[in-house]
Design a protein that fits this description.
By secondary structure, the chain is α+β, with helices and mostly antiparallel strands. The protein contains twelve helices and 39 strands. Strand 27 and strand 28 form a beta hairpin.
Length: 735
């Protein structure tokens, strides 16, 4: 299937309305001459969601941009776009600080429900698209936040999940209020919170499922439990008087999504009666309601991770996706179908009965991960053999969200790739081999802000000749063929995750909170790769991480940099490496294996997993998932892991650590990092360490992040480009 995204065009930066006006008139402006700056991060709206109306006439599109003051917070906007095309209509917000998201169409397509967040206030709004009148609904209490919300089939009511306070955060606040005295001056380890069994406290908040009418006057609590889930599919409502509520079995973590098993609760809206099905659904995903009589399809496996520490090894063991039937409290013994692919735990599944010849027949659509790209696959329940499975999107195109019209004919896709910002496309499911039609052009405005760099997909063979390693080579906007450039290898966290073939991941996210475009604007090349252990490349590739952490570094990543030198892209005398978390460990480890890198930057690295394991130990719970990842045969603390030996380091390295305690463990990263820094500093090695007392495993405060980005750039500029002043304070030492 030949499936191409239309090329991107530029518009003057005067807002989305101006961009659409330029598109309609055919007017084009000259390409921008400005290089990317840090401030551009907060001027870029990225498309993250598209909900097509049941009648297929309109699409509700959500765009977002980071907030300068709090990096992990997002300002979101909802737009209504006619299927026939034309200017998007922005859904009005009460004030400039409001963030709108989670649009849900009423079954008759006449109203839209969405969530509004502003100044810690979280509420729902119903907007009548005929009268353009809005009504604010408050299904939750003043100290609760609104989660998942859905319509009743007759559009007369809504159901919503209300979340209470986070118990882990609350426990930290309690510590701040502790009084003095002897107990505050001495810690008896086995009696202290420091080494408390974390399983003694639940992780998730108390949750309630609430049903209310559109006037807001009739509000009924359907269920109250710490084991309720708050994610898409937690509420399912197909019959007027029957609401299905999904939770987890009783467990120490509460209603956390990673807990194994799902319980199904049937709430009779008319009689206000709750019944719980006796059988537990054997899955970590949402069962999909397919018909009456408690008929569900259950997605199981596809890859597995478990809250049981002894089963964390399965994070890297690829198990086939299996689909089971679940009816009247019983799960079928044999799967309906099985396919060996990687499907993330949070990947969306949508069921459509349109076109099915019976209550249990229809099509299941879901997202799977293939060589760095999310793709959409269909499972046709009423077909047999290979005809049951159908790929709707091709390799190399990344789909981050999708939705279906009620008649099952049209799919709205949010898609793009490393060179194409996300936009909304419509796919005719009756003729899926045809290219989708582009509905929106939000992504076009990106190229008017700055000179966007190009990304080339590259591939090389691993050093042990076992795997093809996929990578993305980011080139400066003014790239000149044949010229060698300084190159920085960015290493993602994890392990067990992967870089996505998407514009935002490649240009803005990177690996350690420094946008790759900032490197490119200064004349660097950037290489990002998915080594062994990453999902989406088959069983052997994924499970190879269990052979040891050192192999991805030595066999996949370092050879990738060497290959870029061999191909004439990279200057061998100006190579750098950077990463965060597991990527920070790779960075700190790589400079003990080779002196090819002339500068390194490690963001919250796990320098020595043995020391970090001891700090993370909590009674019966080992809070760090790598401890039970299968790398050791006996007790977790008996065998050494690959560590970053500072005695072998000759590369100038910048270290960054957050000191803030993160429940249920304090910062185990800093402890071994301090040892690493102290050795290098005492032996006159070029090293600097940045500590952020109010930040954890990542930087949220905007001012702090800007400072870190500037220091990281200055570090590489000095050591690789010979620019700027000495980025660390030299001292008198005696090596």
């Amino acid at each position: 299937m030949q499936w191409k995204l239309p090329s991107v065009r530029a518009f003057p930066h005067c807002g989305w309305i101006c961009a659409w006006a330029a598109l309609a008139s055919g007017g084009l402006q000259a390409a921008p001459t400005d290089a990317f700056r840090y401030e551009h991060l907060f001027r870029i709206d990225q498309v993250v969601e598209a909900q097509i109306s049941p009648d297929g006439s309109r699409v509700a599109v959500v765009t977002e941009r980071p907030k300068p003051e709090t990096y992990y917070s997002r300002q979101r906007t909802i737009w209504l776009v006619p299927r026939a095309g034309g200017k998007p209509e922005r859904v009005p917000a009460a004030d400039a600080g409001s963030s709108l998201d989670n649009p849900v169409w009423s079954p008759d397509s006449r109203k839209i429900l969405y969530r509004v967040a502003r100044d810690k206030v979280n509420e729902l709004v119903v907007r009548d698209l005929g009268s353009n009148q809005s009504r604010v609904l408050q299904p939750c209490g003043t100290k609760e936040t609104v989660g998942v919300a859905i319509w009743s089939p007759d559009a007369s009511r809504i159901a919503a999940i209300c979340n209470g306070a986070n118990p882990l955060t609350a426990s930290v606040e309690e510590k701040k209020e502790e009084k003095g005295g002897l107990e505050s001056k001495a810690i008896v380890a086995t009696r202290s919170r420091l080494y408390d069994d974390s399983l003694a406290k639940r992780w998730s908040p108390e949750r309630r499922a609430v049903v209310m009418d559109l006037t807001g006057k009739k509000r009924v609590e359907a269920f109250n439990s710490q084991y309720l889930l708050d994610e898409p599919g937690a509420l399912q409502w197909r019959e007027a008087e029957t609401l299905w509520i999904v939770g987890t079995p009783a467990n120490p973590f509460g209603g956390m999504a990673f807990v194994s098993g799902r319980t199904l609760h049937r709430y009779d809206v008319r009689q206000r009666r709750l019944d719980t099905l006796a059988g537990t659904v054997d899955t970590e995903r949402m069962p999909l309601l397919t018909g009456p009589d408690a008929g569900f399809i259950v997605p199981v496996a596809g890859t597995v991770a478990s809250p049981d520490p002894s089963q964390f090894r399965k994070t890297w063991e690829l198990e086939p996706l299996q689909l089971f039937e679940f009816s009247n409290g019983k799960q079928g013994q044999d799967p309906l179908a099985s396919l060996e692919i990687y499907v993330g735990r949070s990947a969306p599944f949508l069921w459509s009965r349109a076109g099915g010849d019976g209550a249990g027949n229809g099509t299941l659509y879901f997202q799977w991960f293939d060589r760095g790209s999310n793709r959409i696959k269909a499972f046709h329940a009423d077909r047999t053999g290979q005809e049951r499975w159908q790929d709707l999107t091709p390799a190399g195109k990344n789909v981050i969200a999708f939705s279906l019209s009620a008649d099952g004919r049209t799919m709205a896709l949010v898609t793009g790739d490393a060179n194409t910002p996300n936009d909304v496309y419509l796919l005719d499911l009756k003729q899926p081999s045809t290219s989708p039609s582009r509905l929106t052009r939000f992504g076009d405005a990106v190229r008017d802000l700055f000179q966007v760099s190009d990304v080339e997909t590259v591939r090389w063979r691993s050093k042990d000749d076992r795997f093809d390693i996929d990578g993305w080579l980011l080139k400066p906007a003014d790239y000149q063929p044949g010229k060698r450039y300084p190159l920085i290898l960015l290493v993602h966290g994890g392990p067990g995750v992967a870089f996505r073939n998407s514009f935002d991941a490649m240009h803005f996210e990177g690996a350690h909170q420094v946008p790759p475009e900032l490197y490119l604007a200064r004349g660097y090349m950037v290489l990002m790769a998915n080594p062994r252990g990453d999902p989406g490349y088959g069983r052997q590739h994924q499970e190879a991480i269990l052979e040891g952490w050192e192999f991805p570094t030595n066999y996949d990543l370092i050879p990738g940099v060497q290959e870029m030198v061999r191909r004439g892209y990279a200057d061998p005398e100006r190579l750098g490496i950077a990463g965060a978390s597991y990527g920070g460990w790779v960075t700190a480890f790589a400079v003990t294996q080779t002196d090819m890198f002339k500068a390194a930057s490690a963001h919250d690295p796990v320098i020595d997993t043995g020391i970090s394991s001891a700090v993370a130990y909590r009674g019966n719970l080992l809070g760090n998932y790598w401890l039970h990842a299968g790398f050791v045969d006996n007790h977790l603390l008996d065998a050494p892991f690959p560590t970053s030996d500072p005695r072998k380091v000759n590369t100038p390295i910048l270290l960054r650590f957050g000191l803030k305690e993160q429940p249920p463990m304090p910062s185990m990263f800093f402890v071994s990092g301090l040892e690493y820094f102290t050795y290098l500093h005492a032996h006159c090695k070029p090293v600097e360490m940045i500590m952020h007392p109010e930040e954890g495993h990542g930087i949220g405060d905007g001012e702090t992040l800007r400072d870190y980005v500037d220091r990281d750039l200055a570090w590489f500029d000095y050591w690789l480009l010979g620019k700027g002043g000495l980025p660390y304070k030299p001292h008198t030492c005696h090596p």
